[in-house]
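User: Good morning. I'm curious how uracil would be positioned relative to this chain. Could you predict the structure with it bound?
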Amino acid sequence: MSTTPDDFQEALDATLPILQSMTKNLRAKPKATRTSLENLKASLPPSFEKSTGPSEEPIKSAESSEQLKPTSPVASGNDDGRLAKLEVLKKSILSCTRCPHLVTSRTQVVYGVGNPFAELLFVGEAPGEEEDLRGEPFIGKAGQLLTKIISAMEYTREEIFIANVLKCRPDMPEGESGNRKPKPAEMATCLPWLTQQIELIKPKVIVALGLTAVEGLLGEPHTMRDVRGKWLEYHGVPLMPTYHPAYLLRNQTLAEKRKVWDDMLLVLEKLGRPISAKQRGYFLEKA
Ligand code: URA
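Assistant: Good morning! Here's the predicted structure, ligand included:
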């Protein structure tokens, strides 16, 4: 079986965060002999040699121009200067040290992913363990469900933008696994980064995933009953609060799925997207 560049990239993407984590957390650092590195290089498909040079960050950024849709403003030469500004902002975000306790616990800062010209922005609470290792938001189980919601809306992850209120994984007590919710003070410290991303990306609609994201954005707690399915606003941008996909994973009834879907239909309407009869009927109880 021959190795394709895609296979190799996949293996590299899976290996890099593990090596980084070992480098950070273990006393015995991972080592490779010169011979094994040469053997590895010899086994690369020829088209790969250039792109596997040392890279400063394992993040697969969806901002690279190949990943933008041909119809995006960048592809058609209409960049309003935001790409350069976003690059500068990204550098600052990735090296942020505002929360010293998170600087020591994180593997990396999770900047966000997607189209810098996105009309739709999803905002979650904070990276979990997998996101911290991979440097990309919403890639665990909840993220996979979010990707399904995005596809049901007839978008791809590359067309929209996904970010979190808190850009570092909340630290866990020694020896404890899992994830904890970000604290209000942590979110308040981090929020200016997201606000700057929003000001540059200029989405037409923001979806806040879960009450923690709503609280992070608006600065005070709310209840789902009060806010879900209603239009709020963040810095002049229409904001739709809905359930976090992790909630849907715990509550897999048609009725709960439909609530989120109703919210997404409102979002599609606000964005002026065509909605098919099939889309309107998703998750309705059968008569
Ligand atoms: N949950 C979130 O709120 N954000 C992520 O990136 C992953 C899970």
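The two ends are 51 Å apart (CA to CA). The longest strand covers residues 237-242.
Let me know if you'd like a different ligand tried.
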